[in-house]
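Example 3.2
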Amino acid sequence: MNGCRRSLFVMLQDPNHRRTIGITALSAFFAFGCIIALSTIIALLTPGGPLEPMWRLNPRARQEFGRLGGWALVIMFSVAGACGLASIGLWRIQRYGYVLALVLLVVNLVGDFVNVLLGTEPRAAVGIPIAAAIVAYLLSLRVRRRFLARGQ
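Structure, written as tokens:
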């Protein structure tokens, strides 16, 4: 095994290495969430613009955002900022990224659960086991140690 491949292998397998594949994937997940939230803001600010076709994925979301008026922008800016900070914090193995990721996932989990119970969005049931699995991963002793040992 050449040196570069060996180093990558050791980095991915070594339990003492700072960032695991799972944490890297979650950092990318939250970065993607930030990009989606920013795209939503652009779509809301430019009706009929180049991002208008995105509403075909969930036409009811466009109606709900319209009902919220300016608050939709405030909410989406907050989501974008929180996702962006979680992504950066996870990438840097910072405690704030870990806590923020957990909070965002738990809020999403509760929201999905309420939507399913009330029948407002039955498709949210798909997100429940996914969010629960990610929360379980973040709460695992192995992952907690990476973030909480840093003391930052």
